[in-house]
């Protein structure tokens, strides 16, 4: 009998609970496919990196599935912004560094990554995919909130989160982390939903 399909969002649903009111959550260790870059979101380097990340994610999944190995749902796109947190960040978007990530089951290995990379190269889709790597995050306590609306107005939600953290005697302890719940190509900006996550520690 085949193993049940792994769904990381269902397994870790407490970590993805978010309303428009900031709240504290505890985020455990997790493994991600990751690709890093620099520049404004939406520019070619950013969109090409998204394509490479998803290409790798689905190739790993399908390669395992065809080999009869445990299946899983490919998770949503997320991003970590190393220069941005409650203490501020660069105003010029061209100076922003970013790390696009997709949460991945812990049983995915560097060997799985290597096999998928070779498959994509044979299909003529090398290049950017060679920059994709596996990496772990352990964010621990975080202030989290749901932002509804265009990405350009996230600063309003972030301000509420930072004020909430300050009242709790907490300070930023890592970069801003975003989880994109829908696709901006298919959803009006006013209806976009994004979980904002700020790792924190005691002052």
List the helices and strands and how they pair.
Elements lengths: L7 H4 L11 E5 L2 E9 L5 H23 L10 E5 L15 E8 L5 H13 L10 E5 L2 E9 L5 H14 L2 E3 L3 E5 L12 E10 L1
Antiparallel strand pairs: 1-6, 2-4, 2-5, 3-4, 3-8, 6-9, 7-9, 8-9
Structure write-up:
There is one protein chain. With 203 residues, the chain is an alpha+beta fold. It has helices at 8-11, 44-66, 110-122, 154-167, and strands at 23-27, 30-38, 77-81, 97-104, 133-137, 140-148, 170-172, 176-180, 193-202. Strands 1, 2, 3, 4, 5, 6, 7, 8 and 9 form a 9-stranded antiparallel beta sheet that branches. The longest helix is centred in the first third of the chain and has 23 residues, at 44-66. The model has no long low-confidence stretch (mean pLDDT 93).
User: Cα-atom Rg, whole angstroms?
Assistant: 17 Å
Characterize the main sheet. Answer: 9 strands, antiparallel
| Net shape | globular
**Termini distance?**
51 Å
Helix amount, in percent?
25-40%
Summing up helix and strand content along with how strands pair, one would put the structural category as alpha+beta
The arrangement of helices and strands along the chain is HEEHEEHEEHEEE
The average pLDDT value, as a whole number, equals 93
Give me the count of strands. 9
Strand content: 25-35%
List low-confidence stretches: none
The total count of helices amounts to: 4
